[in-house]
Amino acid sequence: MMDIDGGAGAEFVESTQNFLQWFQSLPGATFQQNIRIEDLRERGAGRGIIATADIEPDTILFTIPRQAILCTTTSDLATKLPSFFTQDASSAASDDGDDSKSQDGWTLLILMLIHEALQGSASRWKPYLDILPRRFDTPMFWPASDLAELQASSVVAKIGKAEADAMIRTRILPIINAHPTAFFPAGTPPLSDADLWALAHRMGSTIMAYAFDLESDAASEKESTPEDDWVEDHAPPIMLGMVPLADLLNADATFNAHINHTPLSLTAVSLCPIPAGTEILNYYGPLPNSELLRRYGYVTPSHARHDVVELPWDLVQSHLHRHLPILTAAQWTAATASVEEPDETFVLERATDEPDATGQITTPATFAGLPEELTDAVKIFLKSVVKAAPAATVVLEDKTVRKTVFLEGVYGALGEREGQYATTLEEDDALLANGARGRREMAVWVRRGEKKLLREAREWVAGQLDEARRAGLSRGREDEQGDEQAAKRRRR
Ligand SMILES: C[S@@+](CC[C@H](N)C(=O)[O-])C[C@H]1O[C@@H](n2cnc3c(N)ncnc32)[C@H](O)[C@@H]1O
Fold it and tell me: Ranges of Basic and acidic residues compositional bias (predicted)?
């Protein structure tokens, strides 16, 4: 849900027009005649770009000269404070809030954006900065009462507010305060720490939702094609930059345009026929709704195919225990003590195809198996069970029994994990059907998607359990028949 602070209609239209005029005046910029920047605030999507007439595939929709990109090679701040920019800026465009004092691609871009914002009309990106959001609706800015709607989703632990605060405290404010003349134009009073803090948070969120990873010149010599892996906006970092206009494209799990990186420019190209009136959509990657919400502040039903859910190891372990009653308490303690990383979690996801060269996915996403890491962890754990309680060998030496214990443990753990959410899948469906709106609606999509995946995983495990039990029974019958035949032979 986008909260673009563009003011009332006229103000919004004016800033859009100023931006487009500015963009089109840049040497090398192009803007195809059959596209338009549209006000999509009514459906919470801010600005977007739509086709005003039918567009053929492979049409260049717009061209952004590299000089228009705000990044380390174009920012005046890099000239003013070169020592910060000669560090390996490509080393980590991470949002992990590392508490060290060194800069990375992420913090440098925050500093560059703050610097440009403070220059006011002297910034050559002013018309661009004017259309960037002033407020964000990502969970980073939600009060506890809204966060509670995410219930047991693991995304709550990933919001990273404390890490962002630490990053601003150690790597943003000290730089600005130590170099006021580089940041504040002559005659303007420095901002208070509180105002800088808010600005830094805003710019951090802007980068999260708007910045692009820019391929190096060498990598971009080869024009990327849709058949190559899709360039995700947060794929392994090379250089982070703000790319005017390219970042006005909204996105979805299926899409119709792609940004190509070439040495002199970035171009938006249509991937398929785009009928008049259709929104032009980019791709942010195969992200679950929880990540879309965390990074971009929105969710879409079509991203639900990429939903993930985390299953903690301790839950699996406690359910395995129920199926191993043969162990004494001391033996169980010994078995669990020898397993490393009890805090580990396993990520469940569906098997799904990548979008094709036209940005479409035509096959369904299905749950097709448990993560290999989980299977391996259970194998190792059952070995340590046998070591701690040699009597368990009698039970666990049988491969089918081992598999059954594993599946029963996981089945139980999946059920308990689903029970950790305060509402049921059915209640969430009813909330969506009855028109939940805003943050609540987005949170319900996230938690509902996770429950749905847990159910699918449980069904898959139940199917595997049936198979394993049938295999066990038929093996049992074979063994019985073998015993009978042996007895007959002995009687003869
Ligand atoms: C790169 S910007 C796209 C342009 C943005 N709409 C604007 O007005 O500046 C990314 C932001 O656009 C919004 N957005 C992108 N795709 C969307 C979609 N399919 N539905 C709703 N909002 C979307 C989200 O708020 C996201 O954080």
Answer: 470-479
* Tens digit of each residue's pLDDT (9 = 90 or more) over 430-456: 999 999 999 999 999 999 999 999 999
Q: 350 and 269: one domain?
A: no
Q: What secondary structure letter does DSSP report for 170?
A: I
d(CA 434, ligand 1 centre) in Å = 25
- Check whether residue 272 and residue 327 sit in a common domain: no
79 inside domain: yes
Cα(33) to centroid(ligand 1), Å: 22
Which residue range forms the structural domain that includes residue 80? 9-282
Closest C-alpha to 382, from 393, 372, 373, 371:
393
- Torsion-angle region of residue 276: left (phi > 0), alpha (psi -120 to 50) or beta? beta
| pTM of the predicted model as reported, rounded to 2 decimal places | 0.90
77-97 pLDDT, tens digit each: 999 999 998 865 444 444 444
CB 381 within 8 A of CB 320: yes
Nearest to 103 by CA among 116, 118, 117, 90: 90
Q: What angle do CA 359, 360, 363 make, to 5 degrees?
A: 145
The closest residue, in CA terms, to atom 20 on ligand 1 is 45
